[in-house]
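Worked problem 6 (solution included).
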Amino acid sequence: MPQSLDLVLRGGTVVTPGGVVEADLAVAEGRIVGIGRLGAVAALEELSIPGLHVLPGVIDPQVHFREPGLEHKEDLATGTAGAVKGGVTAVLEMPNTNPPTTTAAALADKLERAQGRIWCDIAFFIGASEGNAAELGRLERLPGCAGVKVFMGSSTGSLLVGDDEGLMAVLASGSRRVAVHAEDEARLRERLALVREGAGVEMHPIWRDEETALKATLRLLKAAQSCGRPVHVLHVTTAEEIALLSRHKDIATVEVAPQHLTLVAPDCYRKLGTLAQMNPPIRDARHRDGLWRGVAEGVVDCLGSDHAPHTIEEKARPYPTSPSGMPGVETLLPIMLDHVAAGRLSLTRLVDLVSAGPARVYGICGKGRIAVGYDADLTVVDLKARRRIAANTLASRCAWTPFEGTVVTGWPAMTIVRGSVVMREGELIGTPGGRPLRFIDTIGKQT
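Solution. The predicted structure is:
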C-alpha cells in the first residue's frame, strides 16, 4: 500500500466480492489500495462511517440526458448531478438526442460537451440506423462509446431498425454486445388504431401488449444466434420474455427497470395518469411477479433506470400524444434499497444488479466491485434511513417523479467517484470531474 493516501474510510460495512465485512478502505490516485483494518495511516482525508454500508459505485446503464437538442428536459450537467445525488457513479447515455448520436462527429460532440460539466463518469451509445449499419463496427470502438443501441420499435427520426433485414445488417457489423429496445414495430403499427383517435392512458399496455415485446425478443434472439452476436435486452417487462431469455443466456443478457419491479397496472395509470407512461409499459401484477422471479433465479443481469425526463407540461398532453418516459436515475437506488428492506432481495444481489452486473455486461474497465486496483467508485448508504421521495429535492430539470411522496427505507449518504467525494447527505461537493468510461473490449483497438 502506498505511503501517501488520498482518502481513508473508517468503520464501515463493506460489500466486497468475498462477502460483507467490517473494514476500512484506503484510496490513492483514484483507486482502491487497501481493504481491512488499516491501523494508523496518513491520508489527506479520513472519514468515519460507522453504521453505514459501502457498496461498489452504482452504474446506471440506461439514461437519456437529452443533450444536445432537448435541454429543456435535461442536460449532461443536471442529469449527472441527479445521478450522484442518487448514489450513481457512472452512467451509459442513450443516442436519441437531436441530432441523434449516429456518427463519430456526434459522439465527439457529446464528449466535448461533457468536459468539465459531468459529476460522474459516462459513456455514450451510438444509435443504429439504416444509414450507418456498415460503419457500426468502427464506431463502437471509438473512445467514450458504450456500444451500439438498437430501437426495434417506437423510436423517432432515423433511429429505427424495424425489420429483420436491417437488424441482421446491424448485428453483422462489429463484435461488442448490442443493447436493444425490443418492441415489434409492425405490431405496434397494426394496433395503433386502438388509441390513435384518443384513449385513456390505461390503454398503453394494451396497445403495446406483451405480444409486441415477446415477438420482438424472439426475432432478436434468432438474429443474434444467426450472426453470433451477443445482445442485451433492455427494460424487459413480461413474464414470457423472462422465461424465454432464461433459455438463451449464452447470447443474451437481461435488464429490468425499477419502475417495472415496483409499479403495477392498472393502479399506476389511475393514480399517475400519463406520468406512468413509458415504453415498454408498466404491466399487471402477473408480469411484475415474473420479473421478480427473473431477479430471484438470476436471469436478470442488471438494472437500468431508463431515466427519460419530459417536462410536466409535455406529460400533461392527452394520451397518446403525451410522450413516454419518466425520470429515474436519482431514485433507482432508494427504490431498490427499499425492496431490500422489505426482504424482496438481498443487499449482495442488489450490488450484483446495480454494480457488478452492468460492468460485466458491457465490459467496463475498473468498475463494479470493491477490490484492490479497481477505481475507488463507492456508494455509501444508510440502510436504516427513512426518507420521503420529493421532486423539490431532485436535481433533474424536469422536476417531477412518479414516486412522489413514497417513503423508502435505505438512502445514499455519500457518493465517491474515483476517490473524490462528490455528494454527501444530499449536497453536491466540489466541482464536476467525471470522465469517459473505458471498456475491456476496446482497449488497444480504439482509433
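Discussion: Residues 78 and 396 are 6 Å apart (CA to CA).
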